[in-house]
Each structure stands twice: as structure tokens, then as C-alpha cells.
Amino acid sequence: MRNHIDKVVQADAILMMNLDKNGIRGYIGGNCLIEMAIAFYFHKPIFILNKIAKSSPFYEEILGVLPIFLNGDLAIIPVHKPIKGALNLTIKCG
Fold it and tell me: Is residue 88 in some structural domain?
């Protein structure tokens, strides 16, 4: 878990690849929610690939970290090169 937290802290942003899982549309599990909360605390942009179901047990908490929903379109992510190199993006799967 510490390795995941370190990656979030080092990243410029995080991307949640929330695919459908076990019949749940746009699934995001508890571990991903924790990582999103860490990104929020460190003022990192949080991108979520797909919409999440309102029936998700974490629906309100996910909205509370102010994510940017991509609606399946990765081209929406603003990519620019910081002074030291390429965008450092942590990618997570739900």
C-alpha cells in the first residue's frame, strides 16, 4: 500500500481506469478511493475514465474529491511537458 501512496504523491495527476466489473458500471473500489483521497489531499488532478453508477457505495465520496470525468475520452487530459520532462501520470484500475 505504501508503494501505491508514494506513486500518487510523486505523480502530477492520477487516472482511474474504471471499467465495468462484476456487473457494476464504472467500478471504483475501496483502495482506489483511498488513492483518490490522497491525490485530493496533495492537490493532484484526478481523472476518471468512465462515469460511475449512482448505485456505487462510494458515489458521494468520489464526487467529493472533485474528479474530472473523461467520459471515455483520454484526449481530454491536458498534456504538457513540465520543465523536468513528461507528465507523470499514475494509472489505476478499479
Answer: no
